[in-house]
């Protein structure tokens, strides 16, 4: 069993120890020391990082009572080593972890909402509450309550107890172990079985900020940050706000309204643009349909364009066919690597446009189809739009 300094005193960040063994398992190369201040992954708290004799400790896991420090490279073979825990990372975890105890206590004591899980993430933390809905006012009250616990700077005490002794405390949750019970106690606030690391008093948590919450099936997931993470979060939000106020040229309190107005304006402009394009198409249809070219027995309206997508081509063709029932329309658009084709005929013309299209599609590795009077398809621009149009015209003159 490794001697665990992080339980004796979570503030130990450097230590001397002796190498017990150094070897490799499926997770990498690791060293086991007779004693360590490195906290291994567990109880919702991520492992510590740092160095042992200057070699980077990437991961720490407890396996069969021994703490395995996974190293970036082997140690030099010295028996006595010096460990140094990355204190910023560890203290951050201590703040988040203790903050979680306090926030969970706040939700339970104020509203009876039970925490059923905790996640300590890289940037934010979450707790899952066993409820189907959380309202703004409740979240605000819990946050205030928790920050008041922090402000009153209560002691946080960790203690190893026997099962009988554990029963004397108002535990928040049933214990998951029956021996080696470690209680973490914040007098009058929280009594929980916990194997994590915490600061010595609630004041060191620094503060709790609830960022958001969302429904997740039958529970509510609350996202929060504690301590220095609040400052980091505020800094990021401030940067975003600076950009927004500059871009929108309004003070912070008017940003939301200005953004809404902008979205609304964009929608209106898009609608106006659609209307204009529709009018433009109508003009184009009018001009084209009155100047068809004779091809064999047919009058054929032909168009090569790089301005229209499939939808507009179809619209244009339909406008023309509504206008003149005795023409054929062959429209080819070439945009980027794509060729798109629409071919149709008026009610007075007897020609299978689907067949015309199907004969031509293979030359552009295309796909598509339709009905006898109207068909569309597209493919690759491996032939020019002019060539494709020629193919379509020649199909119109083939006897079928
Ligand atoms: Zn804890």
Describe the structure.
There is one protein chain. The protein has 400 residues and is an alpha+beta fold. The chain folds into 3 domains: 3-85, Elongation Factor Tu (Ef-tu), domain 3; 91-235, 2-Layer Sandwich (Threonyl-tRNA Synthetase, Chain A, domain 2); 279-395, Roll (Diaminopimelate Epimerase, Chain A, domain 1). It contains 9 helices and 21 strands. It has a 6-stranded antiparallel barrel with strand order 2-3-7-6-5-8. A 6-stranded mixed sheet has the order 16-17-18-19-21-20, sandwiched between helices. Residues 97, 101, 184, 194, 196, 198 line the site of zinc ion.
Tag the structure with descriptive keywords.
400 residues, alpha+beta, Elongation Factor Tu (Ef-tu), domain 3, Threonyl-tRNA Synthetase, Chain A, domain 2, Diaminopimelate Epimerase, Chain A, domain 1, 3 domains, 32% strand, elongated, binds zinc ion
Topology:
Blueprint: E1 3-4, H1 5-8, E2 14-25, E3 28-33, E4 35-36, E5 50-52, E6 55-63, E7 66-71, E8 80-85, H2 87-111, E9 115-120, E10 125-129, H3 136-151, E11 157-161, H4 163-166, E12 181-186, E13 190-193, E14 208-216, E15 219-226, H5 228-248, H6 255-289, E16 293-295, E17 298-305, H7 310-323, E18 327-335, E19 338-345, H8 353-360, E20 367-370, E21 374-380, H9 385-396
Parallel strand pairs: 1-4, 17-18
Antiparallel strand pairs: 2-3, 2-8, 3-7, 5-6, 5-8, 6-7, 9-10, 10-15, 11-12, 12-13, 14-15, 16-17, 18-19, 19-21, 20-21
Helix pairs in contact: 2-3, 6-7, 8-9
Bound molecules: zinc ion (ZN).
Mean pLDDT: 94
H and E order: EHEEEEEEEHEEHEHEEEEHHEEHEEHEEH
The CATH architecture designation of the largest domain is: 2-Layer Sandwich
Query: Which term fits the overall shape?
Result: elongated
Total beta-strand segments: 21
């Amino acid at each position: 069993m490794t001697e665990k300094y992080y339980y004796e005193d979570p503030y130990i960040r450097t230590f001397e120890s002796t190498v017990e063994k150094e070897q490799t398992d499926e997770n990498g190369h690791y060293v086991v020391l007779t004693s360590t201040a490195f906290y291994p992954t567990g109880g919702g708290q991520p492992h510590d990082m740092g160095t042992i004799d200057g070699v980077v400790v990437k991961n720490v896991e407890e396996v069969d009572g021994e703490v395995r420090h996974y190293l970036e490279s082997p140690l030099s073979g010295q028996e006595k080593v010096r460990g140094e825990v990355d204190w910023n990372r560890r203290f951050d975890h201590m703040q988040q972890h203790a903050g979680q105890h306090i926030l969970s206590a706040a939700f339970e004591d104020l509203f009876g909402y039970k925490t059923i899980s905790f996640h300590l993430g890289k940037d934010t933390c979450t707790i899952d509450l066993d409820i189907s809905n959380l309202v703004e006012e409740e979240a605000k009250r819990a946050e205030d309550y928790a920050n008041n616990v922090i402000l009153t700077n209560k002691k946080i005490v960790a203690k190893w107890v026997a099962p009988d002794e554990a029963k004397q405390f108002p535990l928040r949750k049933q214990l998951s172990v029956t021996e080696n019970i470690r209680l973490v106690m914040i007098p009058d606030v929280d009594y929980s079985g916990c194997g994590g690391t915490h600061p010595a008093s609630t004041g060191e948590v620094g503060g709790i900020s609830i960022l958001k919450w969302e429904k997740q099936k039958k529970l509510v997931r609350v996202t929060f940050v504690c301590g220095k993470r609040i400052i980091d979060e505020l800094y990021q939000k401030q940067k975003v706000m600076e950009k927004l106020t500059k871009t929108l040229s309004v003070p912070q309190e008017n940003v939301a309204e200005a953004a809404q107005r902008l979205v609304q304006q964009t929608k209106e402009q898009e609608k106006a643009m659609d209307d204009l394009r529709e009018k433009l198409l109508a003009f184009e249809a009018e001009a084209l349909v009155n100047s068809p070219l004779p091809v064999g027995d047919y009058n054929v309206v032909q168009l090569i364009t790089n301005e229209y997508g499939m939808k507009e081509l179809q619209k244009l063709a339909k406008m023309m066919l509504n206008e003149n029932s005795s023409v054929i329309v062959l429209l080819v658009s070439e945009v980027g690597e794509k060729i798109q084709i629409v071919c149709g005929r008026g009610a007075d013309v007897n020609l299978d446009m689907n067949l015309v299209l199907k004969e031509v599609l293979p030359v552009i590795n295309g796909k598509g189809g339709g009905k006898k009077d109207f068909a569309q398809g597209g493919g690759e621009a491996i032939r020019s739009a002019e060539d494709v149009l020629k193919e379509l015209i020649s199909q119109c003159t083939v006897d079928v």
